[in-house]
Amino acid sequence: MQTQKEGFTNLYVEEVKNIIADRKGKYMEQTNTHLTEKDKKRNYIFYCIDAALFQLGNAFFEPNSVIPSFIGSFTQNSILIGLSSTIRNLGWFLPQLFVSNYIQDKTYKKPFSLTVSFIMRASALFMALVAMFFGRKSATVTLLLFYFFYSLFSICDGLSGVPWVDILGKIIPERKRGRFIASYQSIGGLLAFAAGFFIKKILESPKLNFPINFSILYILGFIALLISLGFFSLIKEPPSITKNDKMNIKEFFQYVKNIASDDRNLVKAIITNILIRGFFLSMPFYALFANDFLMLSQDVIGYFVSAQMVGYILSCNLWGYLSDHKSNKTVITLTGISAASTPCLALISAACFKTGMNNMLLPIYLVLYATIGFTLSGVFLGFNNYILEFSHEENRAVYIGMCNTLVAPTTLFPILGGLLIQHFSYKPLFIFTTIMILIGVVFSQSLDDRV
Questions:
Q1: What is the number of structural domains in the chain?
Q2: CA 246, 109, 380, 159 torsion: positive or negative?
Q3: I want to staple 366 with a disulfide (CB 3.0 to 4.6 A). Which of 121, 307, 351, 404 is the partner?
Q4: Same domain flag for 322 and 440
Q5: Does one domain contain both 341 and 235?
Q6: pTM here?
Q7: Which range is least confidently modeled, 296-300, 376-380, 406-410?
Q8: Domain with 254 in it: what CATH number?
Q9: DSSP 435-447
Q10: What pLDDT is recorded for position 248?
Q11: Contact present, 394 and 241 (Cβ < 8 Å)
């Protein structure tokens, strides 16, 4: 048994030694011979359309607004209402490490991704049907069925996430990934922004009663997601360099342990990610702080949402340029600075309120929400591109799965933030958030940079 473990460890060490440029160059040479220039251009366009339409479709299932509003029509239980965001986030993060073991020895990842993605789309359709046929009959049955399909929807999204990013790493060259992600984030952001007004119009329409109005939203989301899947199916995937041996669960976790032990830079990237995600401690509470402490009316929330989306769209191109022409480490560091500025701006607004500078409150808060958009865009682009950059083909799926699953506990940060407000107040929460993020910014300086 000891000999087997030593042999396994030695095998992994040999793989680590081959991470550098020769391995990457060899891989790109092998995979690119299977794709013509026309294939590469089609892949780029189809992948971008797939991702943009996916963002549009997700806008109709938004876990912080649309879904809670639907659930709130059946119950006033805050736990059940807040469960939508937790399910969505955990469904995305938790399965990824486990699915990485399943797909890492497969030459082609696309068939698995297509299968679970189709189940995700089917779940979206069933959510619409549940709302339509049970929404007026039984609140209990509606909630049980809806949360079942919503959970399936979220889990399948998480299962498809690893192969989707893995394929992205194969077909999009390293120096074009920043621009690619920036492109689909910008287009998808604009589509989601327009969808927000459409959603508002449907929900306010006197001709569309509850729950038909929500059924229509879910059907529209299903259609957008199904079209996105159609474009993904048109992508030509080059073969992967894979490991010949299939690991059982025990061997796989030993493999993960060896990666964490030997690749200290990966561990530092995960720690940095968790620290910067301290941003989410205060995320749900800025609007409440504006209403309760700064006495801003609820009417301005619409401006906050618009400012956040503007920040998101504008930052995409900035992050994409820096990723391609500077480094993903730079993107991560600047994203951390953006994240730290958000609670700082909340504290500045409190100081303005105390000194009677009320005319400054709304402008400060608009900038605050713009920084939220900057951060949300930068976290996704910076960390995903960083992992793709420093992983290699045989273990790319495992690296993606490790990074996403190990940051899953950060989805519970808003609950911790709520507890801090209950026991202290808003200001200590904002100060704690700022300190945690700044530690992450400092820690990001220890990350390896692009050679």
A1: 2
A2: negative
A3: 307
A4: yes
A5: no
A6: 0.75
A7: 296-300
A8: 1.20.1250.20
A9: HHHHHHHHHHTTS
A10: 75
A11: yes
Residue 2 domain flag: no
The verdict on residue 151 lying in a domain is yes
Give the alpha-carbon dihedral of 104, 105, 109, 114, to 10 degrees. -90
Residue 262 sits in the same domain as residue 405: yes
Measured CA to CA in angstroms, residue 386 lies from 244, 379, 431, 434 at distances of: 26, 11, 28, 24
**78 has pLDDT over 70:** no
- What is the SS3 assignment for 242? coil
Cβ-based burial of 111 (10 A; exposed 0-12, middle 13-18, buried ≥19):
exposed
Amino acid at 112: F
The last residue of one of the domains, among 191, 225, 245, is 245
- Judge if 274 and 207 occupy the same domain: no
Residue with tokens 């879904």: 67
Give yes or no: residues 301 and 382 share one domain: yes
Tokens 């910067």 — which residue? Answer: 276
Q: Is residue 254 part of a domain?
A: yes
Q: How far, in Å, are 101, 115, 248, 402 from residue 253 at the CA level?
A: 9, 26, 9, 11
Question: Rounded to an integer, what is the distance from CA 315 to the centroid of its chain?
Answer: 16
* Shared domain check, 239 and 128: yes
Q: How confident is the model at residue 10 (pLDDT cuts 50, 70, 90)?
A: very low
Token pair in block for residue 157? 């999204």
Indicate if 124 and 214 belong to the same structural domain: yes
Task: Decide if pLDDT at 44 tops 60.
Answer: yes
Asked if residue 381 lies in contact with residue 182, where contact means CB atoms within 8 angstroms, the answer is: yes
- What pLDDT, on the 0 to 100 scale, is given for residue 32? 46
Which element (helix H / strand E) includes 139?
Answer: helix 139-171
Tokens of 352: 């303005």
Cβ burial of 296 (10 Å; 0-12, 13-18, 19+) is buried
Lowest mean pLDDT among 12-16, 46-50, 167-171, 433-437: 12-16
pLDDT band at 356 (very low <50, low <70, confident <90, very high): confident
Q: How far apart are CA 410 and CA 437, in angstroms?
A: 13
